[in-house]
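To: structure desk
From: M.T.
Subject: fold request, one chain
Message: Could you run this one when you get a chance? Sequence is below, nothing fancy, just the single chain.
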Amino acid sequence: MSVVEQPKSAGLIARVQGMLMKPAVEWDVIDGESATVPGLFTGYACILAAIIPIMSALAGILAFSALGALHSIVPFAAHLGPVAVIGGAVVSYVSALLTTFAVGFIIDALAPSFDGQRSQIQGMKLAVYSWTAVWVSGIALIIPLLGGLVVIAALFYSLYAFWIGAPKLMKVPAEKASGYALVCMLASLVAGAVIWWVLHAVEGMFFVGSMMTGGL
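Reply: Done. C-alpha cells follow.
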C-alpha cells in the first residue's frame, strides 16, 4: 500500500526502514514525492503514532493488575485504574497527531524567514516522517524502565533526522539551515507542550466530573 497515495512512493515498512537506517538518503526520495496531507496521516502518522499509546496502555494495565491488593483498600480503584490508563492513551494519541499537524504549519510558516520556500505539503512531510524513530521506539515501552530510555534515545535520533531533512525539503540555504532547524524544533516543542496541556486539562475535568457523578 502506498504511504502517500502515489504509486512511486515508498510503502510503510520501506519508509520506516529508510528513515531509521539512512535518513539523509530517504529525505532525498521524500523530497521528490507527490503527497497529500490526508495520505500522510492516514497512511503513516495515524498508524505509527498509535504504537506509543497502545504499548503505554498495556504496560499501565499490567502494572495496575499487579497491584490487585489495592482494590480492597480503595474501592473505586478497580474502575479508575484501567479507565484512566486508557483515557491517557487516547489523549496521548490525539496529542501526537495534533502536534504533528501543527508542526507542519510551523515549518511552512518559518521557511521564508530563513530564505526557504513555503510549501505546506513539504512541511507536513517533514513533520510526519521526522517522528518515525520515536513512534517505532514505542514498542519498547512494554519493558519497564528500559523502554523509556529507548524512547528518549529515539527522540534525539528524530531530532537529528529533522535537522538534516529541514533544508532538503524546505530549500533553506546551507548557511541558514542550522538556525532554521533549531527555531522550528523550539517552536514545535512549545506547540506540543500547549496541545498536551490543553488535552490533559480536558481529560482531568472529565475524570473529576465522572467521579463526582459516580460515572466511574
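Reply (cont.): Residues 114 and 176 are 6 Å apart (CA to CA). Let me know if you need anything else for the meeting.
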